[in-house]
Amino acid sequence: MYDVMVVGAGHAGCEAALAAARMGCRTLLLTMNLDNVALMSCNPSIGGPAKGHVVREIDALGGEMARNIDRTFIQIRMLNTGRGPAVRALRAQADKRLYSLTMKHTLEHQPDLHVKQALVDELAVGSGSEPAIELKTNTGWVYRGRTVVLTTGTSLAGRVITGDAHYSAGRAGEFAAYGLSQSLRALGFSLGRLKTGTPPRIDARTIDYSETVMQPGSDLPLYFSLSPDDEHVPFGTPNPVFPQDGATRWRPQLPCYLVYTNSHTHEIIRSNLDRAPLYTGRISGVGPRYCPSIEDKIVRFADKESHGFFLEPEGWQTNEVYVQGANTSLPEDVQLAMLRSIPALEHVEMMRVGYAIEYDYVPPNQTLATLESKLIPNLFFAGQVNGTSGYEEAAGQGLIAGVNAARKVKGGQPLVLRRDQAYIGVMIDDLVTRDLTEPYRLLTSRAEFRLLLRQDNADLRLTPIGHQLGLVSDVRYQAVEEKRHVIAEELYRLAGSHLSLSEDLDARLALMHLPPVARSISLLEFLRRPEVSYRTLDELGMGDSALDPDCREQVEIEAKYEGYIERQRAEVERVIRMEERPIPSDFDYDAVRSFRIEARERLKHFRPVTLGQASRISGVNPADVAVLMVCLEKDRYAGTSAA
Questions:
Q1: What's the N-to-C CA distance of the chain in angstroms?
Q2: Alpha carbon of 395 to those of 15, 57, 402, 431: distances in Å?
Q3: Is 483 helix (H, G, I), strand (E, B) or coil?
Q4: Residue 643 has what pLDDT?
Q5: In this structure, are residues 32 and 60 in contact, taking their beta carbons and an 8 Å threshold?
Q6: What are the counts of helices (DSSP H) followed by strands (DSSP E) for the chain?
Q7: Alpha-helical regions (H) of 150-288
Q8: Of 217-226, 279-288, 484-493, 627-636, the least confident
Q9: Burial 461-485 (b: 16+ CB within 10 A, else e)
Q10: Distance separating alpha carbons of residues 30 and 141, to the nearest angstrom
C-alpha cells in the first residue's frame, strides 16, 4: 500500500513523485520506459516567456526542474531584455539525454520513492473501510495506493502520423496506453482528442554553417534556480562536431543557428498539401494554435515570404539537431525536400522524421483547482492529460498535484495558488474555468497581474509557501527573507536620502549624458527616471556597493514601477474578496430563476468552488455573478438564522 502512486515519469510525473516523497509519503512512480524519464520528446529546451516564470516558481516551491536544467544546459539566454520586467524570461537549451539521466539519478536517490517500469492498463477503486485505488499493469500485477496522480502525457490512445503512415504509439518508439484510456471512460470520465507534433531531427555534420546566423549563449552567468551555487555544477564536455566560437567565458555553451525558408520551400509544401494529413482528414485531433505546423503556417500566412527555423543542438555528445519551427506531419520525402530547399541545408540528412500525434485527454471541467478529480476522490490529473502543452506547464501541474495528493494523505489543507500569486495559479484556474478548444499554452498575456508575477521575484512570492510545505530548507528560506529585508531597507534609505543641488552634481550628470536636477529630490525619485539605473547611483557614489545584484534589480523595478504595482495590488485586494466566497458543492443552479439559460448551463458544467471562479467562466456575465452573490448571501443568512 502506497500513500501516493504516480503514473508516468515525464516532467509532470517527476515533480509529483518528488514532491510527495519529500513531504514524507511512501511514493511509487510507474513509467513504461525507465530510459525515458523526463524525456524532452519535442523541443530540447526549458523556459521562455511565461514558461520561464513557471520554472522559477517551481524552484521557489521546492521543485526540481530549475536545478535539473541548470546542471545540464548547453546554452542559456535572457529573452525580451529590451522590454519591461514582466515579460523578461530565461530560456535554456538542454543536453536532452543528460537532462533525462540527471533527473533519473535524482529520482533514484530520493528517500521514500520507489521507481518502477510498468505499463498501467487499468485503474479501479477498491472497496472496504479505507478504499484504495488499484493500478493493474499489462502483466497482471496490481499496485494499491491511497491516492493516484495520472501524468500520462500523450500516451492515452496515442497515434503517430507521418504522411499516409500511422501507428499506435504514445510517442515515437513507445507503446500507447489504450487500456487506461478505456478504464477512465468506464469510470465515467468523458475524454477529448487533441493533437501535437514535432519536427525532423537532422545530422549536424551535413549543415553548412556558413549559410546560418549564429545565436550564441549569454556572456553573463545565468541560472534558473536560486539555490546555492554548488547546485549549479555543469555536466558534459564540448562536442567537436559543432563550431565552438559561440562558447562563453564563464561556462562552455553551444550556439544555435538561424535559417530561413524561401519561395521554393513554400512551393514544395503547397504542391504536397494533398498528401498532408492535416488537410486530408487523417488527423481528427485539435492542434495548438500557438505552435502550428509548417504546412499550417504556409496556408495561414500565405503572404509571408519566409519563416525562421532555429537549428538547436540536442546535446554535447550527439550530432542530432532539432529544427525548431518545422513541426510537420508531411510525408518523409516531402520533409527532406523541404529542408534541402534551404541553402544551409542543401545536403542535409534527416536522422528522425517529423510526425504528428493524436491522443486522449481528460477535459479539466471534471477537475478541481487542486487537480483532484471531481468524479473519483483521491485521483489527481497533471500535465498533457489535462489538455496542456509544454514541459513547464506539465511540471507546474505535477508539483501541485503531488503536493495535494500528499496533503490529502496527511489530512492537511490543499494548496491552491491564486492568479495573483503565480503563473501556475493562472494556468490551473484557466484550465478549470474554460473549455479547451486546443492544447493550452501559458502566455504572459493570460496573467492580468503579470507585473506582480515577474520571474525575478518568484522566490519572494513563493518560497514561504514552499517552506511551509516542507519542500524548502530553513537555510534557503532564511536567505530569501534576508533578501526581502535588504530590499526594503534599501528602498527606505533611498526614500530618505536626497540629491543636493550643486554645480558639481550638474557637471557629473552632464558627463553621464543625463539632464540636470532642477530641484532637490530623493534618490528614490531620481531612480524612477527612465534614463537612470541603480548603476547611475553607483557612479555618483550614492549606491550601496555591497548590495547583491538580485537585490539591486528588485530595488530598481520597485522604484520605477511603484505606481503600476500599487494599482495591481489594490485590484488584487478586490479580487481576493470574491475568491474567498465559497460556493457549496451541492448548490442548485436550476432553482435560481434569475440566471440566464447560458449562465445556468455553464455554471452546472464547471461547478465553480468560489465566486471568483464563477466570474471567470465564459458565458457568465457580471449580472449573473451579482445574482449568484445575492443567492449565496441569502443562503448564508438563512443558515445563520437556522443555527
A1: 42
A2: 6, 10, 10, 15
A3: helix
A4: 33
A5: no
A6: 21, 20
A7: 178-186, 263-270, 277-280
A8: 279-288
A9: bbbbbbbebebbeeebbebbeebbe
A10: 12
- Across the range 442-448, mean pLDDT stands at 92
| The CATH fold of domain 581-642 | DNA polymerase; domain 1 (1.10.150)
pTM for the full model?
0.92
Q: Which three cell numbers stand for residue 501?
A: 543641488
Q: Which three cell numbers stand for residue 332?
A: 518523409
Question: Does domain 474-568 match CATH 1.10.10.1800?
Answer: yes
| C-alpha radius of gyration, the chain, whole number | 26
Please tell me the predicted confidence (pLDDT) of residue 198.
Answer: 94
Placement of cell 514544395 in the chain: 268
CB 29 within 8 A of CB 107: yes
- Rounded alpha-carbon distances, angstroms, from residue 315 to 40, 66, 93, 240, 296: 12, 18, 9, 12, 29
Contact criterion met (CB below 8 Å) for 358 and 161:
yes
What's the residue count for the chain? 643
Domain map of the chain by residue range?
474-568, 581-642
Angle between helices 96-108 and 65-72 (to 10 degrees): 130
- Cell readout for 612 is 471568483
What is the mean pLDDT of the segment spanning 354-382? Answer: 96
Confidence of residue 171 (pLDDT cuts 50, 70, 90): confident
Confidence of residue 638 (pLDDT cuts 50, 70, 90): low
CA atoms within 13 A on the CB side of 245: 7
Average pLDDT over residues 198-222: 96
Matching CATH topology for 474-568 and 581-642? no
Residue 129 has pLDDT above 70, yes or no: no
- Closest by CA to 456, choosing from 549, 570, 565, is 549
